[in-house]
Amino acid sequence: MTERALIDTGPLVALYHEHDPHHARCRAALANLAPPLLTAWPVLTEAAWLLRKRPDGLKAIFAGFGNGLFALLPLDGSDLAGIAAILARYETIGIQLADASLAHLADREGIRTVFTTDRRDFSVIRLKRNRTLRLIPDTQ
Fold this sequence. Notes:
Structural class: mainly alpha
Radius of gyration: 14 Å
């Protein structure tokens, strides 16, 4: 696959936590994705929190940024209104900042694929012109 893809917190954690229930499925899906997988600071912050007791996992994620597997897309003050609009639009499902940031980046960058284990939020999110996101890995 050569299209650009965003990576969410779930796969970032699962890839480097062998006891995560999504580990094997995310490792298999990773083999079919072209680097770099793109993400944002809120996702990395969320992953760091979830891996706080597994420092080797966080080190492995940082190494992934160093070797080109992952890359951060910039977010600045001009992105806040778009992220806030997504948070407001999906407030009833309890969407979090990391997911809203990825949805905003998908719209801003024209990216349609999200590597995520979060079907609850990303399956209902709609981009401009009511476009849906392609979610990887596929559900089983």
